[in-house]
Design goal:
With 618 residues, this protein is mostly helical. It is built from 24 helices and six strands. The radius of gyration is 25 Å and the shape is globular.
Length: 618
């Protein structure tokens, strides 16, 4: 039976700053649970399977990337037990669409990206081409009926190339030399959103090395299974710009086709041969320095699951017996989560700090201190031990990192990436706890650490008055023109968001009440600019677009809370009145509110269900 282990290490290769506080790892124990427990689990699994086409969980198919890297590096069996593999297969089979394909996420329509990578993952996990009681055959039929794997988007092309079932010639260039450009260039990757640059950083290394994993029997078989023509007859140059219509969310503009074509036909041949190859080698070494810096500063968790496995693969390619690769392996488990639908990969290593901060504020608001005291004391300990108390080492400008001292992360201290709204919610919770009796909730966090948090927030304000996520907005929206990912939009730079801006306003207002003399002018100016930003980005219908939840309901919640924190009311603020009219216009006959994920995708209101959704995407 599966059991969740908290705050445990379990491997000499694991590093930690706070004794693994917040770490969550699932472990299978044959002796755990009673016979009744086992029956309950099987019933839950059967119920989900029976309702799988009408009932969904909030997760996607990131697991496939981990499986591919573990297979290539030969570590699949060392990291994933047979029970892990069984639960991963259960998850993928449970979320296959009725047409035989898989989507980009579990509520999405079938795509080439989702179907090919999930089919490949099942094959790598030991499923036969005709396995799964016809499921595998249905998946392969969907792929072939929609043109074969040559039509997979660019990210999929890269993963298949690493695996050895797609030729690197069929990829648009990802030259590592871009990292050698002077920083003042607007297209320098150091100016990109950290999630974007941290994914394309290791991708550029793998592209520059043209790395291909071992050509095993399964790989050679996949070359025959995934294409409509024999593998050796595929026109890879034509495949370079192919993308299935089901995957095409962000079509490439003409300027991209010209750019990639020039790099592919002119620049890349020069860099592959001397003397250009000397520049290529220098760029690859520079990229790996940044990969190692990210690994070491996140204790090999990395900012997210995609760059985590890409970095791990790069470390293995550089040195298959390296300490870095060995430190990566046990951190795979930090991303796994098991439920009645099977085992999935989380979009982060959890949301521990975020959830704890909100739960703490909710519990305090109940005034049930006698009942909630023990929980609040534990939460206080977690919040205190999760705050980032120092900046990353070295020259932050060289590593393209913002200050982080005083911030809070989304998940755990060992992860450590600072985020504006997580820091705001962490500070709000810590401030509220500092006003409660110490004998109930414990000793408050020292004031200086509150001051550090405020300094971090003030440093994060953009010129437009708003706040982005991890860093300042460093470049221009036109940079999206060179976004090479056909399936994702608005990923190249870090934008200001209503959620982050509102959270910072609320935190600074709460801080100002307790410490009115500390940086009062800077705080007042920050709040004033942030308030104007929220007012200015309200949509004509009274809503705000939420980027980190679903979607207009979520964004409007934050927009209103930010304005209310500054003293604005329904009576004195037209923005709040318009927001109320918007929310009332969307109320359902049941009295509740609900919204589809399609609001996020299409940026148009889709209020279609009878419950209030707060689904977080990371």
């Amino acid at each position: 039976m599966w059991k969740l282990k908290n705050a445990e290490g379990g491997s000499s290769w694991l590093q930690t700053l706070n004794n693994h506080v917040g770490r969550q790892v699932w472990e299978f124990d044959l002796k755990a649970g009673t016979s009744e427990d086992h029956l309950d689990v099987e019933k839950a699994r059967a119920d989900f399977n029976d309702k799988r086409f009408i009932q969904h969980h909030s997760a996607d198919f990131l697991m496939r990337l981990q499986v591919i890297v573990l297979y290539v590096t030969g570590a699949l069996n060392a990291v994933l037990s047979e029970m892990h593999k069984k639960e991963i297969c259960r998850y993928l089979y449970n979320h296959q669409n009725e047409d035989g394909g898989w989507g980009l996420h579990i509520e999405g329509h079938s795509t080439m990206f989702g179907t090919v990578l999930n089919y490949v993952t099942l094959r790598l996990l030991g499923q036969a081409p005709d396995g799964g009681q016809g499921t595998m055959e249905k998946g392969r039929a969907w792929i072939l009926d929609h043109g074969g794997a040559t039509a997979i988007p660019s990210w999929g092309k890269m993963w298949l190339s690493v695996l050895g079932v797609f030729d690197w010639i069929g990829n648009n260039p990802l030259p590592p030399e871009i990292w050698l450009l002077p920083y003042f260039f607007p297209i320098h990757p150091g100016r990109m959103w950290c999630h974007c640059r941290m994914v394309y950083l290791p991708m550029s290394y793998l592209y520059g090395r043209r790395f291909v994993g071992p050509l095993t029997r399964i790989i050679m078989s996949l070359r025959e299974e995934l294409y409509t023509v024999p593998y050796e007859k595929i026109d890879w140059n034509q495949a370079r710009n192919m993308c299935a219509k089901e995957d095409l969310y962000y079509p490439h503009p003409l300027i991209q086709d010209i750019l990639w074509g020039t790099l592919h036909k002119v620049v890349e041949p020069a860099l592959m041969h001397w003397p250009g190859s000397m520049l290529r080698e220098r760029a690859l070494q520079s990229v790996m320095k940044h990969v190692h810096y990210e690994d070491e500063n996140t204790h090999y968790i990395c900012i997210g699951p995609v760059n985590k496995v890409l970095n791990m693969l790069c470390c293995w390619v550089e040195d298959s017996n390296s300490e870095a690769f060995k430190r990566h392996l046990p951190r795979i488990l930090d991303y796994l989560w098991v439920a009645e639908d099977g085992m999935k990969m989380q979009g982060y290593n959890g949301s521990q700090l975020w959830d704890t901060a909100f739960a703490t504020q909710a519990l305090i608001s109940t005034d049930l201190l006698d009942d909630c005291g023990p929980m609040l004391k534990k939460a206080h300990m977690y919040i205190e031990r999760s705050q980032v108390i120092e900046d990353c080492p070295g020259d932050l400008n060289f590593w393209y990192r913002h200050i982080s001292k005083g911030a809070w992360p989304f998940s755990t201290r060992d992860h450590g990436w600072p985020i504006s709204d997580c820091s705001s919610e962490g500070l709000k919770a810590a401030l509220a706890l500092s006003q409660l009796p110490q004998d109930i909730v414990g000793k408050p966090i020292p004031s200086q650490r509150f001051f550090d948090s405020v300094s971090f927030m003030l440093s994060m304000q953009n010129n437009d008055g708003g706040f982005a996520t991890y860093e300042l907005t460093r470049s221009y929206p036109w940079l999206e023109i060179i976004n090479p990912a056909e399936t994702f939009g608005d990923i190249v730079i870090d934008y200001s968001y209503v959620e982050c801006t509102s959270a910072v306003i609320q935190a600074l207002v709460a801080f100002k009440k307790l410490y009115p003399e500390h940086q009062c002018k800077e705080i007042e100016a920050c709040i004033s600019k942030a308030t104007r930003y929220i007012e200015n980005i309200q949509r004509h219908d009274g809503s705000w677009y939420g980027s980190w939840g679903v979607c207009f309901t979520y964004g409007t919640w934050f927009g209103v809370l930010g304005l209310v924190a500054t003293g604005k009311t329904y009576q004195n603020c037209s923005n709040i009145r318009n927001a109320c009219e918007f929310l009332l216009s969307k109320q359902l006959p049941s009295g509740g509110w609900g919204e589809s994920y399609l609001s996020c995708q299409d940026k148009v209101n889709f209020f279609v269900v009878s419950f209030f959704i707060l689904s977080f995407y990371f």
